[in-house]
Amino acid sequence: MDAENNKPLPSAFEGPDDSPGYVLWRVANRWQREQRNALQPLGLTHTQFVVLAVASWFEEKEALTQIRLSQLTGSDTMTVSQVVRVLEKAGYLARIAHPTDTRSKVIRVTKTGRELAEHAVQVVEATDKQFFLPLGDNGHALMTLFNKLLR
Fold first, then answer.
1. Is the CB of residue 64 less than 8 Å from the CB of residue 55?
2. What tens digit of pLDDT does each residue of 102-116 get?
3. How far apart are CA 55 and CA 114, in angstroms?
4. Which residues contact 47 (CB under 8 A, 6 or more apart)?
5. Is the torsion defined by CA of 86, 89, 92, 98 positive or negative?
6. Domain-wise residue ranges, the chain
7. Chain-wide mean pLDDT for the chain?
8. Is 20 a residue whose pLDDT tops 80?
9. What angle do CA 44, 35, 114 make, to 5 degrees?
10. For residue range 35-58, what is the model confidence (pLDDT) as tens digits?
């Protein structure tokens, strides 16, 4: 190795574990792995769960289109489109005519989809509870900080 390659990276941090972005990335990966493992027996990916759960929460409040689901989940429209297609094929979602916009379809959760969402939310929340258990009473503070980052 030549001497040029032995220089540390030009970073403000001593090492990766001092970088908030790197640590967040590692925590997010671990959390996703836990959720993926928990949802696998239900036949859902975490993204599918989020779309199904959000559709279940909001369908009575408004006519949910793919674009609106994309906004509510914070996912790109192409991802939501693909997930809706998979969930529709599985019988968990249905697309019906929009009451006012003939170009759009409203996404509805089927009875089977609602039952799956009810079960899956319990699985996800139990997994979250276990994952965040080491934080003790700091969970509320973490949520406050997360919400600041999302604003």
1. yes
2. 888 899 999 999 999
3. 9
4. 75, 79, 83
5. positive
6. 18-150
7. 91
8. yes
9. 40
10. 999 999 999 999 999 999 999 999
Residue type, 83: V
Prediction pTM value: 0.85
In the predicted model, is pLDDT for residue 8 greater than 80? no
DSSP assignment of the chain, as one string?
Answer: --GGGGSPPS-SSSSGGG-HHHHHHHHHHHHHHHHHHHHGGGT--HHHHHHHHHHHHHTTTS---HHHHHHHHT--HHHHHHHHHHHHHTTSEEEEE-SS-TT-EEEEE-HHHHHHHHHHHHHHHHHHHHHHGGGGGGHHHHHHHHHHHH-
**104, 65 in Cβ contact below 8 A?**
yes
Closest CA to 106 of 114, 98, 116: 98
Provide the token pair at 112: 């089977």
**pLDDT reading at 86 higher than 70:** yes
How is domain 18-150 classified at the CATH fold level?
A: Arc Repressor Mutant, subunit A (1.10.10)
